[in-house]
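Page 42, continued from yesterday. The earlier attempt failed because a stray header line got pasted into the input along with the sequence. Redoing it now with the clean sequence only.
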Amino acid sequence: MSKKLLLSFLVVTIALAVIVVANRQIPLVDSFSDTYFKETTTQAALAYATVRGVNGVVSVLKESQVELSPAGIGVSIAAGQILDPIDDMTERLSTVIVTALVSLGLQKLISEIGAAVPGYYVAMFVLFLLIPIWLPRPHKDRYLAVLLKIYFLLLILRLIMPVSALVSDSLYRQLLKPEIIQAEQQLASIFPGHDQLRNFNDFADSESISSFSVAAKDRLEQAKSLFSKISDNVETIIEALLQLTTMYVSLFILQVIMIPVAL
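This time it went through. Structure tokens are written below.
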């Protein structure tokens, strides 16, 4: 009886302690995980914008490729051989980045839910341990097993996700982020900005594309110049797109599979 009373007192003490500390941030871990989610999401969004910009330029050039030279059909075929692989890779990479963004969002949501669970809810579950303490042996084991599963879920919500983010942040900064930034810079140095892209879109949509107006000729020259630049840097573009794909697939695997399993 004295042992049961001692255990009961210990459970009540733990429940009271949980009420005091449950809604407080875990030093370093919470702040690091918040920073990681913000920076990684921002970087992924920038990568997505860059890739969609590349895809937009390629799409415009594909639509206007017949006008790139009087040769017409021959140039169209050559342009297709150059632009189609890039177009396909940007579409696939966009899907990969969106998947990584969704994964980041879900993990951040789980982490925030764990941090926002009211302390008295957790304390209530802790107090449920009083029941198996006073139950006879056969019922005690069954009830205790259910409670342990609930506590494990609460532990995942509160601790494992922030710790996982902390580990991911270290790996991301050391291994993935430099490669991602390098690939983005390579693409940005080749492809035009949003203002120029808007001009290309206007050019592709213009009904007077075949006219001899000064504006049409200028835009045609811009399209020729950009196509020539892409042709000269095809290997660099493909390598950068492959590098981004590899990095974001690795990020997804680290976040969703390897680190949670290891923890």
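Notes: The CA atoms of residues 32 and 166 lie 6 Å apart.
Reminder to self: strip header lines before submitting.
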